[in-house]
């Protein structure tokens, strides 16, 4: 038997309330919710290595580092996403469950989300006036891509790999690529 149902868009308020009580995280795009899956060991280690370096570097300053359980609201895209890592330095970023002014966002690529991270999220995140850098990190090979806003509002793509350093201008940090992949089994 086929089930036919008309699905109404979910309001932002209902989405946020539901996330407070849900055992599964969901991303929100234009009234629709999408369940998030778990991550691999490599994905988790890469995100932890980067977040640890950012946290140590930014400790004591105005910027804060958050990991995958805090959402980023992209109002222009009518979306809430759970990036792997987000950094905010904006004093108005005071919502308890999401950021609105991230300066840096990092996504570790997974086979199931890479297309979304490279297209949908790239375009949505670039609409954030506060965002200076969007970083995509491969987990099956040593490769990091940095989308960096230039002074004219355009974006440039920089890549780095084995034996190189990742430069994060948004937070004034240089990190050896080897440190990102430390203890990651290939």
Instruction: Please summarize the sheet with the most strands.
Output: 6 strands, mixed
**What fold name stands as the CATH topology?**
tt1808, chain A
Number of domains: 1
Gap between N and C termini: 46 Å
- The SS-based structural class is alpha+beta
Question: How much β-strand is present in the residues?
Answer: 25-35%
The order of strands across the largest sheet is 3-6-8-9-10-11
Shape: globular
Number of helices: 5
Average pLDDT, rounded to a whole number, is 91
How many β-strand stretches? 13
Return the string of H and E elements.
HEEHEEEEEEHHEEEEEH
Roughly what percent helix?
A: 10-25%
Looking at this structure, what is the CATH superfamily?
tt1808, chain A
Second-tier CATH architecture: Alpha-Beta Complex
Radius of gyration over all CA atoms, rounded: 17 Å
Broad CATH class = Alpha Beta
Low-confidence stretches: none
Q: How would you describe this protein?
A:
This protein is an alpha+beta fold and 186 residues long. The protein has one domain: Alpha-Beta Complex (tt1808, chain A), CATH 3.90.1570.10. The protein is built from five helices and 13 strands. It has a six-stranded mixed β-sheet with strand order 3-6-8-9-10-11, with helices on both faces. It has a five-stranded mixed β-sheet with strand order 2-1-5-4-7, sandwiched between helices. Strands 12-13 form a two-stranded antiparallel sheet. β10 and β11 form a beta hairpin. The longest helix is centred in the first third of the chain and has 18 residues. The radius of gyration is 17 Å and the shape is globular. The mean pLDDT is 91.
């Amino acid at each position: 038997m086929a089930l036919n149902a008309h699905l109404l868009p979910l309001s932002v308020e209902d989405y946020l309330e539901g996330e407070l009580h849900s055992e599964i995280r969901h991303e929100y795009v234009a009234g629709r919710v999408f369940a998030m899956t778990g991550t691999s060991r490599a994905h988790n280690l890469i995100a932890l290595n980067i977040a640890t370096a950012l946290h140590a570097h930014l400790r004591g300053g105005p910027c804060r580092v958050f990991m995958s359980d805090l959402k980023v609201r992209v109002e222009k895209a009518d979306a809430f996403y759970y990036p792997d890592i987000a950094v905010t330095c904006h004093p108005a970023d005071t919502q308890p469950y999401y950021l609105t002014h991230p300066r840096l966002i990092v996504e570790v690529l997974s086979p199931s989300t890479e297309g979304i991270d490279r297209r949908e999220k790239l375009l949505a995140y670039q609409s954030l006036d506060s965002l200076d850098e969007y970083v995509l990190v491969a987990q099956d090979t040593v490769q990091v891509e940095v989308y960096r806003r230039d002074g004219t509002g355009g974006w440039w793509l920089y890549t780095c790999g084995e034996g190189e350093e990742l430069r994060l201008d948004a937070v004034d940090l240089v990190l050896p690529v080897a440190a990102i992949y430390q203890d990651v089994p290939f």
